[in-house]
Design goal:
This protein is α+β, with helices and mostly antiparallel strands. It is built from 18 helices and ten strands. The strands form three sheets. The chain has a four-stranded mixed β-sheet with strand order 6-7-1-10. Strand 8 and strand 9 form a beta hairpin. The radius of gyration is 27 Å and the shape is elongated.
Length: about 500
């Protein structure tokens, strides 16, 4: 047996130690941990430092997220032209990522999924035209805003289709259902209505009604009573009485019999449905305010770790097959290992979605005029869409996680055969040091969007907004000063209600 000189460390061991030190110094830090300062900075309106955090903490594989975060920060900072430039860059980047072949997969199998360029989830990309539309509204470009609103629904469906192509059919779950967005269709309809294109507006309102009927239970949505009024008003102007009658049969949650909604519908007065329909035609001298109020933060991803067994006398010559087999056995580990001798336990990291419910239950707005104390309707819950998307993708995520761990272990076997036990140790150290979950997501998106519709006499108003918690407790009050209402016209507003902490 050859004796190793005293005090000398084998080269493979030195290499493994060096890799371990380098990678543990920053390689395993998850995206959500690196961006921990971003949400507090945004909540305190510290936009410059929020932009700096995004600049400093996003890497080359996070380019899409860089543009998305930058776009929303600039939007809230009222830098609307710059915001649209960032969002346009995000759309170009996303399209490029989805249409070009992916050559990063091999690198992720020996490191982690952060080696792959981030591809936004469908609900994330659908929000880009929404923010661009409001940017254009504030810039005074009505036609561009209308184009963006129409694109939002198209983009959502396109990215859901692309996502479904990447996962097994049996894992689709509810993801195909949410391709028809009630919120985005309603928003688009109001912008058509604003521009006088009432036929297109009616179609969008009808699509919104169908989407509310289909998904209000799945997404826990509240149906705004104003939608029934808008449909009734335009059906009357267009002579669509038969179409309206059929829609009432198809969408009872939008047109509840006798005004008794089958779900929680938002506005606090029980007679508001009847008023919305009875006053479907605007009163002379009145204008319409549509306030979209964003609250909370969308569910983010965190890291979990789990172990799976490597069995003796198994070649694992088909890693894909064995990865699905191991995934199938994770739910009953005792049965999976029963009667087999475990050679090694592989430790891997995977993302999980942290979507515990927040404390915000709704919003209420008053214009200081009798009868204008109106509770909003929760027309979008992005965390619910995030959950549905994550659940559909989870089997594929877990498969890739196990495949990565298996690939790294098989590499260590090969290293041992080629260079002995020290080479195997170096390979195992490298595998452990590079193991990290992909927790990337668009962190600054809101959790909820509430719509408040107010019909007001022409004038200038200070709107008082109350954010409500459990049992109607007022969590925060804010005033939106100087809101101008013009007779026979729409006023569109979008605001984010940042709380002192993440509610």
């Amino acid at each position: 047996m050859t004796r190793r000189p005293s005090g000398k460390t084998p080269p493979a061991a030195r290499l493994g130690a060096l890799l371990l030190l380098l990678l543990l110094s920053g390689g395993c830090t998850t995206y959500s941990a690196k961006m921990a300062d971003l949400r507090p900075q945004l909540s305190s309106a510290d936009y410059e430092n929020a932009l700096k955090t995004v600049e400093d903490e996003t890497g080359s594989k996070d380019r899409l997220l860089y543009y998305l975060e930058r776009g929303i920060i600039l939007h809230y900072a009222d830098r609307h032209g710059e915001s649209n430039e960032a969002f346009a860059a995000a759309e170009r980047t996303a399209e490029d990522l989805y249409t070009k072949s992916v050559s990063e997969g091999a690198a992720s199998l020996i490191s982690n999924d952060n080696a792959i360029s981030y591809r936004a989830r469908p609900f994330e990309m659908a929000m880009v035209p929404y923010y661009k539309a409001f940017n254009y509204i504030y810039l005074g470009d009505r036609s561009a805003a209308q184009v963006e609103a129409r694109r939002a629904s198209l983009m959502l469906r396109a990215y859901i289709t692309a996502t479904l192509k990447g996962i097994r059919e049996e894992d689709h779950g509810d993801l195909p259902r949410i391709g028809n967005s009630a919120f985005l269709n309603y928003f688009s309809g109001m912008l058509y209505d604003w521009d006088g294109e009432i036929n297109d507006a009616f179609v969008s309102y009808r699509n919104a009604a169908m989407a509310f009927q289909q998904n209000h239970d799945l997404l826990h949505l509240e149906v705004p009573h104003s939608l029934a009024g808008d449909l009734t008003r335009l059906a009357g102007r267009l002579g669509f009485s038969a179409e309206l009658a059929e829609l009432k049969k198809q969408c009872p949650v939008v047109f509840p019999a006798g005004g008794d909604a089958t779900i929680e519908t938002g506005p606090s007065r029980p007679d508001q449905y009847e008023e919305a329909v009875a006053n479907a035609g605007w009163k002379p001298g009145y204008g319409e305010v549509a306030l979209f109020l964003e609250t909370g933060y969308v569910a983010n991803k965190t890291e979990i770790r789990f172990d799976f067994p490597i069995f003796e006398s198994v070649a694992y010559d088909d890693p894909n097959y064995w990865s699905w087999e191991i995934y199938a056995g994770l739910g009953n580990m005792q049965a999976m290992v029963h009667g087999r001798k475990v050679e090694y336990w592989v430790s891997v990291a995977a993302p999980q979605l942290d979507d515990k419910p927040g404390q915000i239950r709704g919003v209420r707005v008053s214009a200081g005029v009798a009868g204008t104390h109106v509770r909003g309707a929760r027309i979008s819950r992005l965390s619910r869409e995030a959950r549905i998307t994550f659940d559909s993708e989870k089997p594929s995520i877990m498969f890739k996680t196990i495949l990565r761990g298996l690939t790294k272990y098989l590499a260590s076997r090969g290293a041992e055969e080629a260079g002995g036990s020290w080479a195997k140790l170096a390979a195992n150290l490298f595998g452990a040091a590079t193991e990290s979950a992909d927790t990337r997501s668009w962190l600054t998106l809101p959790d909820n969007l509430d719509l408040v519709r107010l019909s007001l006499p022409a004038g200038v108003y200070d709107l008082e907004v109350e954010v409500l918690g459990p049992r109607g407790r007022v969590l925060m009050t804010r005033t939106l000063p100087g809101v101008e209402v013009r007779a026979g016209d729409w006023t569109f507003l979008s605001r984010r209600a940042f709380m002192g902490r993440d509610y």
